């Protein structure tokens, strides 16, 4: 098994993050520092350590659904000393990481876990896991502008698409939408609305796959039950 895949299975982080850790010289195999990708390990024979701490497949996997409030960053540590989402869930039996990102001013559904393999699949667009948002914007977009969300909008570094978009209401110079994405570019919804001249005033992610906020309030969290975890994994079984 490739080292980064083994690390992800052990719950260290997503596979991409594990690759970064290897390149940074933070991983040893049988006492030797490994910095090259592609190294293979035998989980039954080899000792793998990350930052000096041994890892194994027996580590407990943790799945947390958090209602991320505005004013928090979705990182483990922040160089600007802003509050992080990890600080909201307290001490856990394993080190957990946020899956994907919600920007500083966005609230809503956020999964934290040490299941790196699942995290990697949830973030990869080829699995097409849906993310549903509620957005309130300045302006009253036309039908053609709304259709452009499906057809594709140039956001500078890519042509971004929404999977579904629905107008909910319009009051004065404000409009509200439900937007469903299957891709996940950085600040995608904000950038798409900005591109049509309707900046976002409020944004909340209301669903990630089968996970919804339910009765949670901003800053509250709960563990996923076994059925929720199984359903979430099922969503990543087949590529779209």
Automatic annotation (TrEMBL):
Record's keyword annotation contains Isomerase: yes
Top-level enzyme category: isomerase
PROSITE patterns: PSI_RSU, S4
Name of one Pfam family that matches: S4
Record's keyword annotation contains Cytoplasm: no
SMART domains, per the entry: S4
Keywords, comma-separated and alphabetical: Isomerase, RNA-binding
A single BP term in Gene Ontology: enzyme-directed rRNA pseudouridine synthesis
Gene Ontology molecular function, alphabetical: RNA binding; rRNA pseudouridine synthase activity
Entry EC number(s): 5.4.99.-
InterPro entries: PsdUridine_synth_cat_dom_sf, PsdUridine_synth_RsuA/RluA, PsdUridine_synth_RsuA/RluB/E/F, PsdUridine_synth_RsuA/RluB_CS, RsuA_PseudoU_synthase, S4_RNA-bd, S4_RNA-bd_sf
Domain RNA-binding S4: from-to ranges: 1-65
Assigned protein family: Belongs to the pseudouridine synthase RsuA family.
Name this polypeptide is given: Pseudouridine synthase
Native organism: Caldicoprobacter faecalis
């Amino acid at each position: 098994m490739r080292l980064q895949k083994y690390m992800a299975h052990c719950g260290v982080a997503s596979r991409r993050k594990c690759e970064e850790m290897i390149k940074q010289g933070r991983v040893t195999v049988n006492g030797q520092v490994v910095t090259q990708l592609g190294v293979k390990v035998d989980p039954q024979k080899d000792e793998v350590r990350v930052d000096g701490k041994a890892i194994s497949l027996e580590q407990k996997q943790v799945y947390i659904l958090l209602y991320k409030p505005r004013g928090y960053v979705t990182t483990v540590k922040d160089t600007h000393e802003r509050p992080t989402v990890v600080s909201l869930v307290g001490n856990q039996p394993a080190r957990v990481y946020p899956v994907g990102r919600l920007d500083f001013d966005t609230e809503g559904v956020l999964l934290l876990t040490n299941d790196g393999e699942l995290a990697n699949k949830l973030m990869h667009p080829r699995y097409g896991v849906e993310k549903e948002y509620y957005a309130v914007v300045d302006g009253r977009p036309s039908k053609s502008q709304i259709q452009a969300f499906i057809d594709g909008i140039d956001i500078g570094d890519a042509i971004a698409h929404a999977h579904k978009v629905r107008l909910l209401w319009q009051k004065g110079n404000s409009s509200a939408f439900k937007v469903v994405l299957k891709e996940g570019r950085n600040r995608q919804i904000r950038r798409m609305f900005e591109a049509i001249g309707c900046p976002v005033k409020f944004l909340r992610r209301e669903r990630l796959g089968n996970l919804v906020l339910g009765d949670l309030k901003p800053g509250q969290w709960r563990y996923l039950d076994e059925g929720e975890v199984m359903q979430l994994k099922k969503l990543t079984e087949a590529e779209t």
